[in-house]
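Below is one record:
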Amino acid sequence: MRRILGAIMLATMAHGAAAAQDDIMRMQAGGDVGATMDALVEAVEGAGATVFARVDHGAGAAGVDMDLAPSQLLIFGNPKLGTPPMQANALAGLFLPLKVLVYEDGDGQVWLAYEDPEETLDDLEGIDDDAAYIQKMRMALIKLTEAAAGR
């Protein structure tokens, strides 16, 4: 019986991981991670948003003598856009501000990736999937990542 329950749990977890990956939007970039991230920062600041942090995962790994392909995370936002979902449900603050990952895959290709805001906030009570701020977040992420990717 324990084996059956264990198998069911593993299957459920694997399904959840696959479903979560479908919620991740990815865009191929032409430059290296650093240059792509610089372009993303410029696009974010140019749009009037605030950059809260730029996390260099690769440097962190190197700091503990571990290897990791180049990977940087940008945390940014605009209170006019982020406050309404937090007013609807304070737990939205767990997922905001917005985040974009710029990383190099095993083949040396650089990607920009982020989770679709509708999916990010989907399970929170009081937040409507059709809320105007979700569409604004989605459009901002598309425009910003396109600018960073050189499109």
About this structure: The longest strand covers residues 50-56.
